[in-house]
Design goal:
The complex is a heterodimer of chains A (421) and B (132). With 421 residues, chain A is mainly alpha-helical. Chain A has 20 helices and no strands. Chain A has a domain of 95 residues. Helices cover 71% and strands 0% of the residues of chain A. In chain A, helix 11 packs parallel to helix 14 and helix 13 packs across helix 14. Chain B has a four-stranded antiparallel β-sheet with strand order 2-5-1-6, covered by helices on one side. In chain B, a hairpin with a 5-residue loop joins strand 3 and strand 4. Classes of the chains: A mainly alpha (421), B alpha+beta (132). Chains A and B meet through helix 6, helix 8, helix 9, helix 14 and helix 16 of A and strand 2 of B.
């Protein structure tokens, strides 16, 4: 365990929150109380030193805040006396040395609450980062480039939503569990993507989000070591994140997989990811995150692009395609097919996607088509599709990349047209 | 997803149309905008919102010799609409952005009737997605 200030606080956040919610029941107020306790710790510990029992200290401070909060509520409402109120604040906190196994359940229950399907994805992400990740509202607002007041509202609405939808502080039933765990993993996946995707140029600081998502995925994996999809998601994050340093050039420009300097890839992250994937596959479990992780592993294991085991990637995409209805998977499957059987096979597979309204006219379809057309040496058509893709993307680095591809092909074509001599 | 909503207001005769509204109607319009912005903030969707100074104050700038600013008066007198203000919102889907835009479009004008202004909705460029 890391006992240096911030990391320790972040690690203890869900445990402390779990203990306080367990005692007082009011998730929303407990969450505020724990944030206040964290702030108090962040101010006092560096000066006075970390207490012997930091967890107990935090619980005690949060419980006092809760008691104050309940007192104020009570005075305001003049309602009947809450049982907790009859005790002096010091007795309200649980025995501070009770380090039992409810901790791990508490963290999971909190995750299930924060990622409840009744919440919008953006509010579930914000709530998870605060309640489980121990980030402040300002940090979350900064990561998502919105004002702090807006993020504060988002979080408070999410908490309100949990209150009104009557979500109880308990493990989901076995019947709901798979679906609810799926929601948790999806929230962590989106958080990772937000951080990873934007870890370029001016937004470099936002990589914190992917580190946080990896940290949380580790927490879930520690509590549910036998769950293949949890391991799969953690592996997928590690294997993707391993390429981060190679993914952009000095000016923040995107570098595609086959052009990356593979010596920049993080070998430790790759070994850990590969080990996780291998382990879950050997247990015979298979799911969408595991398959994506396996695909990433195959890419990462190739020292040079030409060493990539495309037949295996094609087979994995084939499995993934049967498992999900995501047109992006079909798109990637077509790329793999082109790498194995040639570009015209890939182009043929893309035709099926023209009829899919989720993807028709989408920039990714144009970009992939452009790439495959370039492989067939139909440069004229490739240029048109690179340009169409550049016109439709909502990402500046991607637009720059696609525009550059089109310009490169145009220049080559013009050079060929110059008469000799 | 972040979107910019640009409110194009009718320019009106001579001066900005809004100057010719009865004060009651103007007040109702301003209150609507305040309420609307508060709703967006409370919903956790507001990133930024600004109203822009009237068309009489528009200046058009081009770099002249040596990069010095060459300033001319705007707006173009024939324009029927002009950019009166904008919002940047962060919401779940384009559908939600259109809903918000429609609310802004229906801001009350003279006699309390909805203005039905045209609101241009543009997605703000973001980071590229993660390749799988």
């Amino acid at each position: 365990m890391d006992f240096t200030g911030e990391n320790l606080l972040r690690e203890l956040t869900p445990q402390v929150l779990g203990a306080v919610v367990r005692r007082f029941g009011d998730f929303s107020a407990a969450e505020d109380a724990v944030q206040e306790a964290l702030l108090a710790a962040a101010m006092q510990w560096p000066e006075k030193g970390v207490p012997d029992n930091p967890r107990g200290w935090l619980i005690q401070v949060a419980a006092r805040r809760m008691t104050d909060h309940l007192r104020a509520e009570l005075a305001r409402r003049r309602r009947e006396v809450v049982v907790a109120m009859q005790m002096p604040p010091d007795q309200v906190a649980p025995a501070v040395d009770s380090e039992d196994d409810t901790d791990q359940d508490d963290t999971l229950i909190l995750l299930f609450m924060c990622c409840h399907p009744a919440l919008t994805r953006s509010s579930a992400i914000a709530l998870t980062l605060r309640a489980i990740g121990g980030l402040t509202t300002a940090e979350i607002a900064n990561a998502y480039l919105v004002p702090e007041t807006t993020m504060a509202q988002r979080i408070s609405r999410a908490k309100q939503r949990i209150k009104t939808s009557g979500v109880r502080f308990r493990m989901p039933s076995d019947r709901e569990r798979a679906e609810r765990l799926g929601a948790v993993l999806h929230v962590l996946y989106l958080t990772f993507n937000e951080g990873y995707a934007s870890s370029i140029g001016a937004h470099l600081q936002r990589t914190d989000l992917s580190n946080e998502a990896i940290r949380l995925a580790r927490v879930v994996h520690k509590f549910l070591p036998d769950d293949g999809e949890v391991a799969g998601l953690l592996a997928l994050m590690l294997l993707t994140d391993a390429r981060r340093a190679a993914r952009t050039g000095p000016d923040g420009e995107l570098i595609p997989l086959d052009k990356q300097d593979r010596t920049l890839w993080d070998r430790n992250a790759i070994s850990e990811g590969v080990a996780l994937v291998t382990d879950t596959f050997s247990r015979g479990s298979i799911g969408a995150y595991q398959l994506q992780a396996a695909i990433a592993a195959v890419h990462n294991e190739a020292t040079r692009p030409q060493d990539t085991d495309w037949p295996q990637i094609l087979a994995l995409y084939g499995l993934l395609k049967r498992m999900t209805d995501n047109p992006m998977v079909t798109l990637n499957h077509a790329i793999a097919a082109a790498m194995v059987h040639g570009p015209s096979t890939g182009l043929k597979l893309l035709e099926a996607l023209d009829a899919d309204e989720r993807l028709a006219g989408h920039y990714r379809l144009h970009a992939v088509r452009a790439h495959l057309l370039e492989m067939t040496r139909d440069h004229e058509a490739a240029i048109a599709h690179y340009r169409a893709a550049a016109d439709r993307t909502t990402s500046i680095p991607e637009r720059d990349y696609l525009t550059t591809q089109a310009a490169r092909l145009s220049a080559e074509r013009q050079q060929r047209q110059v008469p000799p001599g | 997803m972040k979107f910019m909503l640009m409110m194009h207001a009718p320019r009106g005769e001579g001066d900005w149309a809004v100057f010719n509204w009865p004060s009651e109607d103007l007040k109702a319009h301003i209150n609507f905008m305040k309420r609307f912005n508060k709703e967006l903030r409370d919903a956790g969707e507001l990133v930024a919102a600004e109203g822009l100074a009237g068309p009489a104050q528009v200046r058009v700038v081009r770099a002249g010799k040596g990069g010095a600013p060459e300033v001319t008066d705007g707006p173009f007198p024939e324009a029927k609409e002009f950019l009166a203000g904008y919002w940047i919102i962060d919401c779940e889907s384009p559908k939600r952005a259109y809903e918000i835009a429609a609310r802004a479009s229906a801001a009350p004008g003279p006699g309390g009737a909805p203005l039905n202004m045209s609101i241009e909705v543009r997605e703000v460029m973001s980071a590229p997605p993660v390749e799988v």
